[in-house]
Write a structure and sequence with these properties.
mitochondrion; Endonuclease, Chain A; nine-stranded mixed beta sheet; eleven-stranded mixed beta sheet; 16 helices; disordered C terminus; disordered N terminus
Length: about 550
């Protein structure tokens, strides 16, 4: 959850992807103890329902001056997270270049070396959609797809048809070992009469031995809260938010869901890793581990847990979290140990005079599952921002602007220059929505205005720049971070060349630390002139600049 206190914004570059909880302008200025009292899950669920009914008529007549929808109602910030520090690891590069600079990260998370030529940036929703369809059709061993939900329109049905085509071919003997595994969120995937479950049910019924559909259910939605909070609002309690799409040894890491707007006019980011078997194996195992602790969809549309697994809302909450954490971290720790041994062996071979391969790019998968007590991404991100000192430029982008207190301190502290790109109200996915949801874009603008006011108060306008993405008839959902990513040109476009200078870090993050399961890759590159573009948006767009002439102090 994120927090905001009158003139002091507590936002997070852990950008949230969903409607959060609701508070009024009065509550924003209330003491922390009052907000902590008000924010209990049960009271929040009931409160949002009452407010929606109370203000719906008023909001139709005019904008509400009382209700300002801060998307993420927060509790008090927890104690600062420990920042990874290793002996002799200062973030300064030595003769080993990038490897030394990020060696501290490899000591805590798996580190995969891949050729930069195998990493490609998809630049549009249409390209993302058609790439997935083509890869599904040609998959021979596995299709693994993790998303918040699968939509119910004709484009989504075409995607399901591609899976059916691949499974049909497998049964004809072309590739009999093909397995299809889908991981979605339970609450979002079960919303409405026609939903993600009903879209996948025919496939599950026809190919039950080759098909698995797992529905993650947060352990925080239970008891009376689960009974009282209605659909859609229950998604604010917690969701499965990993977006990974895997086809044999090819992998797409994205923030895009499997829904029509993400295939047409909702700009996101999409990193394709081709023929990267070890990375693909890790992601397949990790998604599988999350699937193991999730509810399993049955052929009659019921759900059940795997044998021996703790139930997420019927079982003890602490027992579920501990069991799930152990199960998931076993995958992470096993991969980390395996990669550590492989890297040690590679260094020995190089010291003996053997030539290294073409694996010039590092991939560090970072896992964030705070409801389960897994906070690796938070810790690594804090360290990365801490190490970004004067002379560096950090680029952050998100469709939803809401930094945490820790990241706010790092951004506003003396250090790197920051270029922040967020969605204008017109391209926010909730723009024009009915009822209380229609206030969400204004709430994010309020958060951004408070943040920029703080920037101005500290006289940091030359160091911290805030931009807005605007494109007619489109929405903006991309999230990313890096110390060298595309420059933002006022009113022109945002782009990334195919090859950039060495020693760069790129990554993407999309989570609310109390609510979501997240997996993000952090990619680093040792040498120049590879095809790794990292996080990229190749767009024709308008970028508004927050400055003296626009939404200024």
């Amino acid at each position: 959850m994120l927090c905001m206190r009158s003139a002091h914004v507590l936002v997070s570059f852990q950008f949230a992807d969903k409607v959060g909880l609701i508070e009024t302008a009065v509550m924003m200025a209330a003491p922390m103890s009052w907000r902590r009292l008000v924010y209990t899950p049960t009271l929040t669920g009931v409160f949002t329902r009452i407010l929606d009914r109370l203000f719906r008529t008023r909001d139709r007549r005019r904008g509400s001056s009382v209700l300002l929808l801060a998307p993420l109602l927060a509790e008090a910030d927890p104690s600062p997270l420990p920042v990874f520090r290793s002996p002799g690891s200062t973030g300064v590069q030595d003769t080993d270049g990038l490897r030394a600079r990020f060696r501290w990260m490899a000591e805590h998370v798996p580190a995969f070396r891949v050729p930069g030529t195998h990493i490609h940036i998809l630049t549009s929703p249409d390209q993302f959609y058609h790439t997935m369809k083509a890869r599904i059709k040609t998959a021979k061993r596995r299709v693994v797809m993790a998303s918040l939900y699968l939509g119910t329109g004709p484009l989504e049905q075409e995607l399901v048809d591609c899976m059916q085509e691949a499974l049909e071919r497998s049964q004809e003997g072309d590739n009999p070992d093909l397995q299809v595994s889908i991981l979605l969120d339970y609450t979002r995937g079960s919303r409405g009469k026609t939903n993600s479950r009903t879209m996948l049910l025919p496939l599950l019924q026809q190919y039950s031995s080759q098909m698995r559909v797992s529905l993650y259910h947060t352990p925080d939605l239970r008891g009376l809260l689960r009974l009282l909070v209605p659909q859609r609002f229950n998604e604010t309690i917690g969701v499965q938010h990993i977006k990974a799409y895997l086809f044999d040894d090819d992998l797409i890491i994205s923030g895009a869901n499997l829904s029509d707007s993400y295939f047409t006019n909702r700009q996101d980011r999409y990193v394709l890793l081709e023929n990267c078997g070890e990375v693909a194996d890790f992601f397949s195992d990790l998604v599988g581990a999350v699937g193991d602790v999730s509810l399993q969809l049955q052929t009659d549309n019921s759900v059940s847990m795997m044998y021996g697994m703790v139930h997420p809302y019927r079982g003890n909450r602490d027992d579920f979290s501990a069991s799930a954490r152990q199960h998931i971290m076993e995958v992470v720790n096993t991969a980390h140990a395996r990669q550590h041994i492989a890297e040690s062996e590679r260094l020995v071979r190089e010291s003996d005079g053997e030539e290294g391969g073409k694996e010039d790019t590092w991939v560090f998968p970072l896992v964030q599952m705070k409801p389960l007590g897994i906070q690796v991404d938070e810790q690594v991100t804090q360290r990365l921002l801490t190490d970004a000192g004067p002379g560096a430029t950090v680029f952050l982008t998100s469709g939803y602007f809401n930094l945490t207190r820790a990241y706010m301190s790092l951004v506003l502290g003396v250090g790197a220059d920051y270029r922040i790109l967020t969605a204008s109200p017109e391209v926010n996915g909730f723009f024009g929505a009915k009822g209380i949801a229609g206030e969400i874009p204004a709430a994010y603008i309020h958060i951004a205005r408070q943040f920029y006011s703080k920037v101005c108060q500290l006289g940091q306008q030359e160091r911290v720049h805030l931009h807005e993405y605007h494109r007619a008839q489109w929405t903006f959902h991309a999230k990313g971070a890096g110390d060298v990513v595309p420059e933002v040109y006022r009113g022109v476009q945002l782009y990334v060349p195919a090859a950039r200078p060495p020693r760069q870090t790129v990554g993407q993050t999309a989570y609310s630390p109390h609510q979501e399961l997240l997996l993000r890759p952090c990619l680093t590159r040792e040498v120049a002139n590879t095809h790794l573009a990292g996080f990229s948006l190749v767009l024709r767009l308008k970028v508004r600049w927050w400055g003296p002439s626009y939404r200024s102090c």
